[in-house]
Every structure is written in structure tokens, then in C-alpha cells.
Amino acid sequence: MDDLHVCHLGQVEYREATELQERLRELRLRDDIGDVLLLLEHPPVYTRGRRTRDGELPMGEDWYRSQGIDIVDTPRGGRVTYHGPGQLVGYAIMRADDVVEHVRSMERAIVTALGEQGIDAHARIDDGPDFTGVWVGERKIASIGVHLSKGVTAHGFAVNVDNDLQPFEWIVPCGLHAQMTSVCRELGEAPNLPCFRKRMAYAFTQEHGRRQRLVALERLLVGEPSIA
Known about the structure:
By secondary structure, the chain is an alpha/beta fold. Helix content is 30%, strand content 26%. It contains seven helices and ten strands. A seven-stranded mixed β-sheet has the order 7-8-9-6-2-1-10, with helices on both faces. A three-stranded mixed β-sheet has the order 4-3-5. Strand 7 and strand 8 form a beta hairpin. The longest helix is centred in the middle third of the chain and has 18 residues. The termini are far apart.
């Protein structure tokens, strides 16, 4: 059974996390590292994917920034979404031949982790790409957007655990007029984010038939070429 490196990063600014993913992707392309799952949180930020359309930030960028929420364009698939403290974000730097199956594997892993938390969740595979992610009834609890380049993925999933859901109501999340929910809202109590993070890491590695290996970021980056 191959290892899957899992790295817990805490809270990381979105642009910094994007740059880190590209550094790791270059290492993965050269086979200097194996497949990696980064688990982290972001400060408040709206991110716009490749399929974002006009009108998905209806208040105007200046208004959102006045609320303390950054706005960043990103190469991942999908449309506009929100990230903030208390939301578990997972970025997978992995070799993949089939990006659709890669997304489906994320959905299955999230459903498994939520089920172990006591939440009956599901994917909506037959409803089209706008419904990618994980749902509880008609409420969306997790979003997914990935980017595949030269056979290696980046970006990934975001599961609402105990984050503020108000910022979702100020946009058209993922292009849908859908109610967002969280683990906290569904269970009626604040969950332990580190505990759910462990559930998610285990479910993700099991879904890929791997053995989880916790690793520090510095160990992953040791293979980067030095700058003269």
C-alpha cells in the first residue's frame, strides 16, 4: 500500500496557499515527492473559478472588501465560493488520469467523513457540474473545484464545519441559489475541527487505497532546487 502524505498547515492566506500548491506540483511532476493532501483553513476570501459569471458578486468588490473579505481569481474549476476560518479546506497534489473520477473520489470521501460525524450526506452526480460537491438534503455542505495540469492535480475541497455561513448569503455560491449548511448547523452543536480534520484525512486516504503518512511542510519542500 502506497503512502499518501498528509500535511496540516493551520490557517494560510489564499494566495500563499496557491503559490505553495504550484511549488508542490512542480516537485510532484519531477517525482521528487509522492501524492500530497494539504489540510488547512483560510482567512475570509471569495475565490472565483474559471466558470464564474458576471453577477455572482452582486454587492460589488469594494463592498465585500469593506467587510474584510478578500477576492481572488483562481485557475480551479467551478464558480465563486467563500472560504473562512472554521471551514476545512483540502488541497490534493496528486497524479490523476481522470479529473472527473478525481472529483467523485473527493465527494465519496467527504460523504464518508460526514457519515462518521453523524450526518447523512450525498453527492448529486446526475444533476450536472453546477451541483458538484456534497449535500445534506437540498443544503450544500461541501464545495469542490480542482485544476489538472500535466497530469497532476491542485486545489480540491472545502467542507463547512463551524465557519460563519453569512458570507455565502452575500453571493451566488457556486452559481446556485442554494442554501449552505455546516456540520455545526446540522448537528446543532460546535464540532471539534481538529477531530473532523482527522476523520477527513482518514476517509480521503482510504478512498484512494493509501496509507496516511503525516509529514511537515519542510520535509515536502526539501527537494526544491536551491537558488544560486
